[in-house]
Specification:
about 55% helix, 6 helices, mainly alpha, globular, 434 Repressor (Amino-terminal Domain)
Length: about 100
C-alpha cells in the first residue's frame, strides 16, 4: 500500500487539474499568494477555516490537512490549533466519517 498523500500534494494536483495558479487560488479564498505558497511547500498548513474555503472552491476535502505534521498558520498567532467542538461538528457535517 502506498503512502498517504499530504494535503499540499493533493492540492497541488488539484490546481494542475483546474489549471489554476497559486495566485488564482489565493484570490478565490481571500488569502495571499505567499500564504498559499507556504501551504504548498509544506511549511505550514491552513487553519480549519481556510481549509474549508479551499474545499469550497477546489473540492479538496478539509480533512486532507488535519493529519499533516506541519504547524497551522494559527500557531503563529497563538490560537489553539486543535478542533473546537464547533469545528469538529462542521467537519462531521461534510460527510467524512
Amino acid at each position: 500500500m502506498g503512502e498517504r498523500k499530504t494535503g499540499a500534494q493533493i492540492l497541488r494536483e488539484r490546481l494542475l487539474e483546474l489549471g489554476w495558479s497559486q495566485s488564482e487560488l489565493s484570490e478565490k479564498i481571500g488569502s495571499s499568494p505567499a500564504v498559499v505558497s507556504r501551504w504548498l511547500a509544506e511549511f505550514r498548513k491552513p487553519t480549519l477555516e481556510m481549509a474549508f474555503r479551499v474545499q469550497a472552491v477546489t473540492g479538496v476535502h478539509a480533512q486532507a490537512w488535519l493529519d499533516d505534521p506541519c504547524a497551522t498558520d494559527a500557531d503563529d498567532t497563538g490560537k489553539h490549533a486543535g478542533l473546537s467542538d464547533q469545528a469538529a461538528s462542521k467537519l462531521a457535517a461534510t460527510g467524512n466519517d
